[in-house]
Amino acid sequence: MTIRTFRITVRGVFDGLDSGQRAALLADAAEHDVLRAAFTPEGHLSYDITARPAFTFRFSATGEEEEDILVAAEEAENTARAWLSERGYGFKNLRSSAEDLSQAPLGKRQRRAARSEGFGR
Of 64, 69, 87, 101, which cross-links 5 as Cys (Cβ 3.0–4.6 Å)? Predict the structure, then answer.
């Protein structure tokens, strides 16, 4: 079996934050800057609370079957929901999208590398 790698993005909007919660998010903002965003198994949260109340969690997961992406997306949403709830952060409009990297089209450099290695001729 081939191991498939999935990238899952969970998006939402903070809702009903009090001043203490907002201050906590602002204090940790550098750690959650979009420029530091990465897809990780535990999930990486990014936001810019000064600009807008939206947030994004990025998760990576693996599976053997094409259908495993659905389970991975559900688990990612549940993990994001739990993280927010444990901290008492209100949220709304939680939604996810997932990509199976084995199905992603090759970029220009990847196609060039594949041709130079004798693939795709």
Answer: 101
